[in-house]
Amino acid sequence: MAAAVASSPFPASRRLPSKNHIPACPAAPSLLRLAGGSSSRRRRLRRALRVSAAPEEADVLPGPGVIELEMVSAGLLEELPVDPLGGSQLDIGGLAFQGDVTGGFTSGGSGGAGAGGDGGNKMLDRGINTAIVLGASTYALTKLLTVDQDYWHGWTIFEILRYMPEHNWSAYEEALKTNPVLAKMMISGVVYSLGDWIAQCYEGKPIFEFDRTRMFRSGLVGFTLHGSLSHYYYHFCESLFPFKDWWAVPVKVAFDQTAWSALWNSIYFVVLGFLRFESPVTIFSELKSTFFPMLTAGWKLWPFAHLITYGVVPVEQRLLWVDCVELIWVTILSTYSNEKSEARISDASTSTDSQDNSR
């Protein structure tokens, strides 16, 4: 043993102290330089490499400038942040080193990709929504402004704007004569889409961050069901109450706000639930709890509007007037229909996160 020590190129006096004691060596300044401009990191590194007296001797130092990673003090490892896989992480001058409690470190990259991805998806959704709104608005205004484009030769801007409302109304009446059901379906689809968009904005969502799928569902129900069913309902109501006396108007309003409102509110609620792929048990349970609140909410609006519907407006024009009022009513309907579903999804997500955290 003495011969081995004598033949070693290092003097016997150069011995390592105890496990928590690391001698000053040429590697320390280089590590301090790696720490960059952060004073807190430098202090932590100095504290880890601080020289202290040791009562016992250890093995011979392998060579100048080399520090065994297993000699890193346990105190430093306890101070390092722990990664989810059970290791520790050391950040020196922007370089991330990761490893387990034995001191084996490997280089790793910094996170943040998830947050960046979420931000990118949000910007993409906002861009798509903006394109939808601007595209639909541009198309609608173009159709309204160019109704007389075949007769514009020699017209002034004043003449175009002057005749535009009258000729658009004439085009609408012509569409009612040609295909009344399709014309009313188109109007109801647009109104129900706009109504759901207004409802989402009323619930606190930014104007261009609306739920496109939810708005499409509402518009689909308005297009496929409300326009066609309302067309036949108003003709049925006239045949059921063919009287022209003044008392026929409140009777029609009462019938509308009991039988027809209850039927249509239920159809809207149930169809939206199936379009959200909810179970029939869930749909009918939520319908049962919201049926009377939806019905009584309509009594605050529709009786006054229907005095005009059944007292003034002709049968063929009633749906257009009703759809104008529907912009307010669909906001209420959509809020009632979606708030319980969204609350249930939020509760389920919160419960899932709690279970994952408890594990």
From TrEMBL:
It comes from the Eukaryota. It is found in: Membrane. This is Peroxisomal membrane protein. One of its GO terms (cellular component) is cytoplasm. Residues 1-22 are annotated as: Disordered. Residues 1-13 have a biased composition (Low complexity). The lineage of its organism: Eukaryota, Viridiplantae, Streptophyta, Embryophyta, Tracheophyta. Its main location: membrane. It comes from Brachypodium distachyon (Purple false brome).
